[in-house]
Amino acid sequence: MKITTIDDRLIDQLFADYKNTYGGVRNDFFAPAYLVAEHQITIEKALLQTTFGGRDYGFDAFHFDQATGNLYLYQFKWSDDATLFKDCYRRMIDAGIDRIFVGSYQDAKQNQALLQIKSLLLEKKALVNAVFIRFVFKGDPKDAENSSVLSKLQEDLESKKYLIDTFFGREVNLVIDYRSSRGHIGGVAVQTKTHTYLIDFGDETLKKGPGGELMHIGSVKLYELNSMFEEMRQRLLDRNIRSGLTGDESPNRAITRSLRDIVLDEKADPAVFFFNHNGITMFAQKLEREDGRYKITEPRILNGAQTITSFSKFLGKFSDHPKLKSNRNRLEQIEVPCRIITDATDEFVISVTVNNNRQNPVKPWALRANDMIQLQLADKFQQDLKIYYGRQENAFHNLTDEDLERMEIEQQKEIELRRLASTFLIADGEVDKASRLPEVFDDDKAYSAVFGKFRLNADSRKILLCYKVQFRLRKLTDEIQSRGYQKYWFARRARNLAWALICQGMLNDPELEDYADKYGRYMSVEAGFMEWMREIAVNKVRLLLSDLVATDPYRQRMEEERYDFLRTRAAYDVCMQHAYKRWKWVAQKLR
After folding, report:
1. What is the C-alpha separation between 197 and 228, in angstroms, rounded?
2. For residues 156 and 89, is the Cβ–Cβ distance under 8 A?
3. Per-residue pLDDT at 190 exceeds 80
4. C-alpha angle with apex 526: 520 to 529, nearest 5 degrees?
5. What average pLDDT score do residues 402-421 get?
């Protein structure tokens, strides 16, 4: 059988022909069809290399090309939606790679095709030059490559490469890429390497966690951490809640000052830095002794990004300073306390990251930066609007124009996590909670109510319309006041309430779709958008505020100069009751 085009008709035919022999469901037959087309093998061989049924550990098919020495491990989705690969990634990370390349435990129910892979590896072990993990679907590979969710999962999967190298007893190329059944391929596939470093890890103490996690406590040289950063760059910091503080932040200034005192001015002993530093927390796939030192595999910084980035900037800033070279020995003596976590699940590592950073002066929303919903929102805004979502502090600041182009980000402003949270609360009418944002992020139930999966169903254009109101809110409340200061002087005290009502005015506008197309795709506040907001504020929100303060018990509170009610959900609800009577407005939410 020769296959050049894969479509529904072909898959239906293969399912009809072979379902009684191989079982499985209809979409399982996408895999053998692709193997035939891609590798020019017979359908019979392709069927034998496909995992029909369950217990596949994330792998749907495999193929070994003896001419090139390439082993291909496949995952297939008969869909345009690349995000469907998320669960498959997790199965590969949690157990799939271990099942194929380690097999430390037995699974009598594992898919028969997995046993064939293991048998093939034992037979052809010396011939394998590279392992390709390939994700195939109907959509555009660029959508997968630009996905924050998949990028994070891909990095986690790449971190398992050391298991592949260990199995073969040598460095073997690992390539993870995306392909389309329609013939499209992704960008240049990047060959990943296992990042390993030899470090001096002094005075190690070992602690065990409740689930077998290990914490290695000791010290590490700052210049050794910098060597990791020079090679891995942002990859080293991706698990941190922020991308490293900018140079003018207080912690960075203090670190730079200490380094200058030690290395350039010789005013302080290098040993002092260790005592003055809170320490760094890292996660690694493995930490093992080797020839009197320690070999660390795939390190990631959980807490301490500002220390590493400050050190790197210090070296760059004073690269021409004569003392930097002559006092190299002082530089190399600088150590920091260090905790390295191994043998831990992804969920455990995330928990450690959050709790470590809670002990420092970190804004509560920054602790949520790596939550799955935040990664999914980043994908949503990138795909829908080509706008960068700043879930991680300072990440946008550190991106180059080339980075933005590669990510297909077309706008020079970001949507910020904190401001987005306020927008969701305001659009939901939770005007009181919007003024208590830290509490929302600290409380899991309140946080889930703001950042639930339902937000992924919202129209991104309409989210952006409500988001942009905050940048002109003072001017809009001034416009309300200008219609009679004696009557509307309190408008500025009701800024969140006004914001919520302006959003509802927009979302209840009969011409909303047209406005969303005109003004809901760009971060700029266009003149036409400002005029639309001004019209809603002056002609409708102004009247609702007037209705509110004329209603008991709020009329009496105004007379008593008690204005806290202007920041309550109850006041919003009263305004919306009047809005329904006046214009048939109903509460619209971004979901």
Report:
1. 7
2. yes
3. no
4. 65
5. 93
Run of H or E residues at 86: helix 86-91
The answer to whether residues 456 and 376 touch, using CB atoms and an 8 Å cutoff, is yes
Mean pLDDT rounded to a whole number for the chain? 91
- Residue written as token pair 């390709």: 132
Bridge pairing between strands 280-283 and 388-390: unpaired
> Does residue 188 surpass a pLDDT of 60?
no
**Residues paired with 208 in a beta bridge:** 214
Q: With CA atoms as reference, report the closest residue to 187 among 406, 436, 396, 375.
A: 406
pLDDT computed for residue 182 by the predictor: 83
Q: Between the CA of residue 154 and those of 122, 189, 193, 370, what are the distances in Å? A: 26, 13, 13, 14
CB atoms inside a 10 Å sphere around CB 275: 8
Task: Using alpha carbons only, give the angle 99, 100, 106 rounded to the nearest 5 degrees.
Answer: 40
Summarised one tens digit per residue, pLDDT across range 43-57 is 999 999 999 977 788
Task: Locate all alpha helices (DSSP H) within 395-488, ordered by sequence.
Answer: 401-406, 417-427, 431-434, 437-442, 444-450, 460-469, 473-481, 485-488
Helices 222-232 and 305-317: crossing angle in degrees, nearest 10, is 90
Place of tokens 């420092």: 360
**What's the pLDDT tens digit per position in 463-477?**
999 999 999 999 999
Residue 529 corresponds to which tokens in the numbers above? Answer: 């958008």
Q: What is the pLDDT of residues 244-268, one digit of tens each?
A: 545 455 567 888 899 999 999 999 9
Helix (H, G, I), strand (E, B) or coil at 222: helix
- Whether the per-residue pLDDT at 87 is higher than 90: the answer is yes
Asked if 64 and 121 touch (Cβ cutoff 8 Å), the reply is no
